[in-house]
Amino acid sequence: MVNFQFYLQAEKMSLTVADAVDYKGFPADKSRTGGWVPAALSLGIEVIERLSTMGIAVNLVTYLGGTMHLSSATSANVVTDFMGTSFLLCLLGGFLADSYLGRYRTIAIFATVQALGTCILAISTRLPKLRPPPCQATEVTQCQQASNSQMGVLYLSLYLIAVGTGGVKSSVSGFGTDQFDEKDEKEKAQMAYFFNRFVFVISIGTLMAVTVLVYIQDEIDRSWGYGICSASMFVAILIFLLGTKRYRYKKCLGSPVVHILQVAAAAIGKKNIKVPSDIALLYEDLPEALRINHTDQFRFLDKASVVTEDDYQGNGSFMVNPWKLCSVTRVEEVKMMIRLLPIWATTIIFWTTYAQMITFSVEQATTMGRTIGNFQIPAASLTVFFVAAILITLAVYDRLVMPLCKKWIGKPGFSNLQRIGIGLFLSAVGMAAAAISENKRLSVAKEFSENTTLPITVFLLIPQFFLVGAGEAFIYSGQLDFFITKSPKGMKTMSTGLFLTTIALGFFLSSLLVSIVKNVTGNSIKQGWVGDNINKGRLDYFYGLLAALSFINFGLFLISAAWYRRKTVKNAPQVKITAKVSEIEEKC
């Protein structure tokens, strides 16, 4: 009878997910929660978020120049600053999700904020009072620029969207992976495919943005395009909420930022303490199943786990102050985050090259022949080749490369670091191709300087879009996989936010480089490489500079990846904490 009850209990445990609960707070039942359907429902929010953000970003530079009458460089910087802030705020979204709100509430709240921001943007582009009077001058400097109040309303809408994007993007991918149990081999295999399909699906949103949405903005009305984004987001929120009963939820484990600060404070407070050679003497308070093995890297942080006399009260009783004594597992979590930083730093430059695809590359397209028969392709829609490269690359990788790798080497495709490396290399080649294409365009522009449309086909830009697009397919899925799977469980959303900050810093670096290059190469008389009119600049030199920086960065990434793989792991003896403390008490 006892054996039968034990069997029933074991069977019941096998049907639940150990670290997840359902919407009522009970252990999540595998047969009723999680899997591909709930993961797909959560992806709906991300698809619409990508539709809105990219639909705004890829065509915003033409609105700022053609309607708000800002200069070329200023317009590019407004776009990159907006995109950079959107991704930088992912850290805030990740912090709130991990510490207080949880991923589900974070997605619902911030998606609503983004929908409201897009609604305000639609209104601002509709009302004549919120934009300067039309101008037919050939030089934008001769037109009346938007007033501070007009730009203020525009900035309000853009940065509400940025706040919403930060919360949504930091949580959706983590919430999607929450729907799979890593301890179940079948679900773990499904999660391996999730990252690739995640990027593929959201790229569909980008494709819709640069084709349908851009066409509506250019040919029908810009406010209609933004209104569709807002309405679509509200619909996506309703669909997301319909899956409430099917989702698996992970509990908030406290603020990861506080945990990191506690380890740092404890280690600094014991800077003069020597770490014992026997790591079994270090403090640990978690059961064996939840522990992280001790590593020999960053030995200074191990001081935070050394038990001293100061960790005892006056009456001799042992009491843990997390700001003075941290468990080995807590210290190892911080070490795991530190190990991510070199990879994090070397992926920033990719997003700087990516920024050119939605700013200067779009401006290049506006000066070139875009007619096919009687149809004129909107300049911003040239990024369809960029998105096509992503979709084709992901489809080939998912349906061909991954099955072949699994058959031949027993692994489902390239590792996350290999994918990141491939993406960095392709983007560097893409910038070199962009420099060559721009050199050709400029040679034509010198002969036809007065023409608004140069007698050169816009399809000359296809190589740079395809190469950087294929690079994004590899690097985005690789980064997403790397930062989620190589980070501590309690810091998963924050690490996703950390990954997304590489995009933010890439856009900010783009703005900084444009400003520096503009000031160094130009003056009040001479425009320089970038400026108000790209036909009078040397954008090819700027692209060449980015290509050189990208190749140098690729070399640094290879060094960082080799360092990451060489990390050594030393298994700590499985000794109970009570035994450790009693041992230390005897020595004290």
TrEMBL record:
Q: Which Gene3D superfamilies match?
A: MFS general substrate transporter like domains
Q: Which residues cross the membrane?
A: 78-97, 103-123, 198-217, 223-243, 340-357, 377-397, 417-436, 456-476, 497-521, 541-564
Q: Which InterPro entries match?
A: MFS_trans_sf, POT_fam, PTR2_symporter_CS
SUPFAM superfamilies membership: MFS general substrate transporter
Q: Name one GO molecular function term.
A: transmembrane transporter activity
Q: Give the membrane topology.
A: Multi-pass membrane protein
Q: Which UniProt keywords apply?
A: Membrane, Transmembrane, Transmembrane helix
Location(s), subcellular: Membrane
The name this protein goes by in its record = Proton-dependent oligopeptide transporter family
Per the UniProt record, the lineage of the source organism begins with: Eukaryota, Viridiplantae, Streptophyta, Embryophyta, Tracheophyta
